[in-house]
Design brief:
It is a single chain. Helices cover 32% and strands 30% of the residues. By secondary structure, it is an alpha+beta fold. Strand 22 and strand 23 form a beta hairpin.
Length: 351
Amino acid sequence: MSECVIAGTLSGKKVRLGRSAVEELYEQGCFGRPVKRGLELTLVEAAYLLDRELIEVRYGGDDLDFRTFFELCSGLESGFEFRYVVYKDLRERGYYVQPGITDFRVYPRGGRPGKTPAEFYVRVISERLPLSLSDILEPVRVAHQMRKRLMLAIVDEESDITFYEAGMKELRGAMRDTPPGGVATLLEDRVVLWDPIFSERLHQEGFYGKPVGGRLQLSLVESAYLLERGLIEVVDRSGSPLMRDEFVERARSIEKNFDMKFRVYRDLRDRNLVVKTGFKFGSHFRVYKNVKGLDRVPHSEYLVHSVPEDYVFHLPGISRSVRLAHSVRKEMVFAYEDGGVKYLEIRRIKP
């Protein structure tokens, strides 16, 4: 071995180096973890240092070149190559990176382990792998408990990395109370409020529905919400009144995901937000914090898509949703149920 680099030995899934490595690698560059007889490196740390010719690695009596070591590590540790790509990228951006509760913890520029808290926990994911909602929420909760931010590092098939931040979102609006309406009729897949005065009031003051020829057409979730709160009455084509439960049963037969969408719609409206369809943006809803008048309708702040508890994300889909939301100056939020409706925001970031 060369005398200008530090020698280490691959043992299990760690590379162990002598005491001199503590000063040269840990104290100067925050690599590895000091142990009783020296320094212990993870496989990605060792590969990074080996590639830079700062260490040499021996295994089974032989010195390993970078290719041999990398291929060996890929067999020892699932996802090794993805983590190496992300580790190398963050290190070369000037960040101190250490193993963490997720894949890594990353310190802010100007900070370092032992002196400043980590800023991010990093979860590394291949673009090819599906990602369940629970697989995102668990590291989000851990990061929140530890007062960190969660970074999702998505590695594509060309080893390019896209970074996202995922976190819980608290949505609140500033809309005033909704005025009462009148009698409306359930037609094929929507509800029509006939009285022009009530129609104008509901639309002007609550931003409900779509005026069509002086009459207000309401969506199923809007109608269920207004009916539940006694703000409209709904009848069928024969004029027979529909109670809330009967209306919901009919809505379920028309719209497959009605219950899930309605629970989210109701929660958002109860948070004093304005909720309109997000169909044009590929989401269930577009959401406004406040609409002060129809002559001053602002851009909606959020796109909200409702997902079930067992939902599985496909990462190209997340990429499309987040990119679209950003392009139209909105935040992408996913709504799910966990003892009530909760909100997960995913946004692209540039470290």
